[in-house]
Amino acid sequence: MQIFNSENSGRFIYIKVDEEFITFYWDSEVRYFNERKEYLHDNEIQDELENDEPNNFYWIPIKEWINNNEHWVNHMKEKNWFTDRMLKYINKETKI
Questions:
Q1: Tens digits of residue pLDDT in 40-60
Q2: Dist CA 40 CA 3 (whole Å)
Q3: Which residues sit opposite 24 in a β-bridge?
């Protein structure tokens, strides 16, 4: 997972690229998830987290990104929070 500054939105965004998806998370969701996980562990609470990862706000199937790259690049550039650094990172991670 890599963090990026989304200058246009004034927020930080984490991007995770795995075998199936490119997933986007607001930094606040990642912080909340990590704090909750740490709290449960530190207090030896057996309560399980609702999810095994933070809530995401956007995701793209890897196969879609690779097979229809021009479409997805144009689509993502319309988002005010998406940056060229994010695009370079995703293309590097997906080997485009």
A1: 878 877 666 566 788 899 999
A2: 25
A3: 15, 58
Using alpha carbons only, give the angle 83, 89, 62 rounded to the nearest 5 degrees: 100
The percent of residues above 90 in pLDDT, for the chain, comes to 62
- Sheet of 21-26, strands arranged across: 2-6, 11-17, 21-26, 58-61
4-14 tens-digit pLDDT:
999 887 889 99
Mean pLDDT of the chain, nearest integer: 90
- 21 forms bridges with which residues in the sheet? 61
Helix axes 84-93, 69-77, angle to 10 degrees: 150
State the chain's maximal CA–CA distance in angstroms: 48
